[in-house]
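Why does residue order matter? Because the sequence determines the fold. Keep that principle in mind as you read this record.
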Amino acid sequence: MGLFDSLKRKEERPRRKIPASLKKKEEVPPRSDIEVVPIEEDVLAKELVKPQFRYLKKITVTSYSDLERISAELQEGNIVLVDLTPLEKRPDVLEKIAEQIKGMVNALDGQAAKVCRNEIKLILLPSDIRIAK
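Structure:
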């Protein structure tokens, strides 16, 4: 029996298949190109990407003190729906408040538009939202 005879005998034997349950699952080595981000940086990133909520708020104007609320809401970036119908009985006050609102919106680089024909309602928009005309 020579050296080559033993090699031939091994090839002639039928190979048995190993059952899938007995096979070892190959473990995937960890990738070295992925950078692990510490938790603090992950939380900070979520805070930076956190969406900013804006609101549409309705304010019924009955006196000059309501102008401060309108100004504060516009400065926060909210859209304001102004109802001036309670001032229809006093046209002189209505005209002055309308001029104040117009000046305030211009100073904040926003836009204003009348919403209704029959009622006196205005929509006031902050500087980063525009009305398509």
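Strands lie at 56-60, 79-83, 111-114, 121-125.
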